[in-house]
Predict the 3D structure of the following.
Amino acid sequence: MIGAGGLGCPALLGLRAAGARRVLVVDPDRVEPSNLHRQVLYDLGDVGAAKAEVAARKLAAAGIDARARVHRLAPADVPAFVAELVSARGPDAVVLECTDAPALKFAMNDACVAASVPLVIAAALALTGHVIAVGRAGGCYRCVFEAPPPVELVPSCASAGVLGTAVGTTGWLQAAIAVQLASAPADQGVLGRLHVLDLGRGTIRTLGGRSRGDCPICSARTVSSVTTAT
Amino acid sequence: MATVRIPTPLRKFTQGKEEVSVSATNVRELIANLETSFPGIKERICDEQGAVRRFVNVFVADEDIRFLDNLDTPVKDGDEISIVPAIAGG
């Protein structure tokens, strides 16, 4: 779990509800009072504590083997992080990307595709949520969005706002898809599809899903690596 | 008329409207007509060369236009067009 904030908290609750047994939570931040309304794993007594540690402690209290890493993952560090994950947890680990950093989402996509590690990326803004599963077949995040947006063109939750139920619903869907990926990593029905949640209308649309032939990331995936990994 | 779903980051150009109706025969014309009605919006969808920006995707009836005819993808009355930029909040 990369990011234990507005998306990460409900996604962790979703993983707990689904019966996850081992979770690694990576987040550099500390709990602030302004987080509490939507970052639902935390309460007033956690203010000032590291989110990763609080989240891991609360999951551990539910019987989950939960570890914390208080660390800001930079895009350049992602390939080594994913390699370490595969080494420690094997190829069956699933990564949930829950940060608000566009470059990190693309870096995680690239590294996970290269390492055949299933990944679920989520994002939310205002009343909108995005969730996409990236696996060992089908399209990837770069098949939908070719490159990260310039920082000046990306509204943040601080500037555009975000509804707590939007990140909550998006995080739960992300967890549900992660569980599906863990049990069926080559499920063509879920891979590469962008789920667009509109909390204002109560709708979820599923868009795309095909691998872009000229995608520099997933088109380089070899048949043998897919076969071996699955 | 086609129905265009406007994403949150672009609603400041449409006076907050989530959906607008636009008459067009293809996506290129649709974006041009959007710009006529809502000045400034095209620049957020297309780059200086007129191509759809790399962090934005356009779907016609839930199909990525890059798998169709890109900006020349036909649009017909009743179609639903989704403009979907990457978002990053969490």
User: Anything to note?
Assistant: Residues 130 and 196 of chain A are 5 Å apart (CA to CA).
